[in-house]
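Service request form, structural biology core

Requester: graduate student, group of Dr. S.
Request type: structure prediction, single chain
Budget code: on file
Notes: please return the result as structure tokens.

Sequence provided:
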Amino acid sequence: MNRFFLLLLPAFFFFQGKAQSASSDTLVIREVITGFFKGMHENDTNLVKQNCCFAPDFKHISGKMPRFRQESFQGFLDFVGNPKYLGKIDERNTIGSIQLSGPMAVVWCPYEFYMDGKYSHKGVNSITLIKSGREGWKICGLIDTREK
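Core staff response, request fulfilled:
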């Protein structure tokens, strides 16, 4: 019986370490997404950039069926950073499920969107993140749906 226990002990520590790693990754991912949305709410493009690592060909995809539109990361930053055009943003979101697989995560965030205190629309954000050893977790893609 003692031998059996000794054989299982390394597996216990291995899986416990994996669970703790996933748990700490989940916390960091929540912080990254919270910082990203804080940057949007404050029209602070530097805060948005800090939480993102978009490739030069990044496209923000947004819309509702059957029409979705794509914009570049710079177009997205221009939109976020221009409070006169956009107004006061209040995106009330909930960080729903977080799916992890190695250095990749996908987060589902239902939301309601208000501009200047008035309800505009609701939908879901699907946010993809990647983890690099140097920079940690960063957002690399964003797709959102919109409905009244």
